[in-house]
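The instructor's notes for this session suggest beginning with a concrete chain rather than abstract definitions. Hand out the sequence below and ask the class to guess, before any prediction is shown, which regions might be ordered.
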Amino acid sequence: MTLLSVAQMNSQNDIDANFVVIESLMQQSKADGAELIVFPENFVCFAAGKQRETAARFEEIQQRLERLAQQYQLWIVAGTLPCPFRPDGSIIEDGRVRTVSLCISPEKTEARYDKIHLFDVQVGDAVGGYQESAFFEPGNELVVAKTPFGNIGMMVCYDLRFPELALKLRAQGANILTTPAAFTYTTGQMHWQLLLQARAMDSQCQVLGAAQQGWHGEKRQTWGHASAANSRGQLLDMIHTEGAQLITVPFDLDEQKQVRESMPLIQHRTLIEL
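After discussion, reveal the predicted structure:
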């Protein structure tokens, strides 16, 4: 059995102040005996309009996270960071950036996932409408990172609403799905827990939902409730209070194997043409 931590943060626009919280959560995760900590979306800097400025520091921030992973001997799923270049190194020329989630071992960065589904929606909150595609270029590659405790299928926030993505990650060998998020208060209240448990039930993977919580500036409010669901779709734990904190939950590959063998959903799945 392995212990895995899921973080909740209230990140603001001060990168160094956010790193103080990041390191504190890593210390707590290590004290809990965890091997992995998952951070939320925008965990290093949460500031509208500063994506390009933060993206210019992508490699510096990546190296800082790698040093922390080595120092604490923890695997990190580094929420999301804005990045000015694609996985092949080519620069994004139109001024947009990519939303990138990194999987970092105590030795090095092991995998990079670029968020595929962009949040272009109307929401009944103080912001009103969101159009991520105006600032971000979507990724187009599925990523499964191999770790000593199981294979991690990497997702981000809005990706949770697309069961086919979770199923494809399962088909590529995922045991765990990581979903760093910054759900709006409005959509989170309606769907966050439901989506986490549904994707766990669909894929028979453990789902780790790291979350932003609280106010970021005057208009943006996130739902929080960092959570984990097991391979049966049951909620293992959820944070119900405000502020930076974490939960640490067990994960057992042998137990997951039994779940999948007793209810072989993948083998039973048929393609239905509507």
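Then share the key points. The first helix runs from residue 15 to 32. The two ends are 42 Å apart (CA to CA).
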